[in-house]
Specification:
Blueprint (H helix, E strand, L loop, with lengths): L2 H8 L1 E5 L4 H13 L4 E5 L5 H12 L6 E3 L4 H10 L3 E3 L5 H8 L4 E5 L2 H10 L3 E4 L7 H8 L8 E3 L5 H9 L5 E3 L1 H4 L8 H18 L3
Length: 211
Amino acid sequence: MDLTAALATHRLVAIVRGDDPDAALRTVLTLVEEGIELVEVSLSGKDALSVIERARHALGPDHPLGAGTVLTAEDARAAHRAGADFAVTPGLGDGVTTAQELGLPVLAGVLTPTEIIAARAMGVAALKVFPIAQSGGAAYLKALRGPFTDAPFVPVGGVDEAAARACLAAGAVAVGVGSPLIGDAADGGSIAALRERARLFRAVVAEGENL
């Protein structure tokens, strides 16, 4: 898949991490039903690989599905076997290189200018600026865009509704949203409430398309 283009089109990555695999699967499928096209299942969640496998079966072969928290080469291989078609990492390492060798585009975790330069040299699809909320938020993202004017930044970490608006206004190609969107749905919480939050974030992204 062309992850860079998908990020620019959809502008939102939902990050699912839960302690209840069945609830996590329901969460993934509900997000897709609500029109959130890019969903990442974090490998730090319980039985995450089985969630990816089951989601892939339910969604079919052509729907984008990511594996998150890909740290090691084995993480990348396991995600690929489970049916993920893109990988998300918290930093740079063997997970990035192995995923790319397997044909999985990577949204790679960076924070500093040095890491951005290294990630771009590795040929990653996009740059996950993480953790953004603890690192200056949209103001930091705007500062990074000074020397890296064309970099596809995706801020992640503490991105709530207000931060999503601010980061999109500051030039983010997309935002990655975890608990402010997912809430407790992946642990067995309300799916109806998840649907409401999904619609809220889709509206925020739609506003951002006009920026």
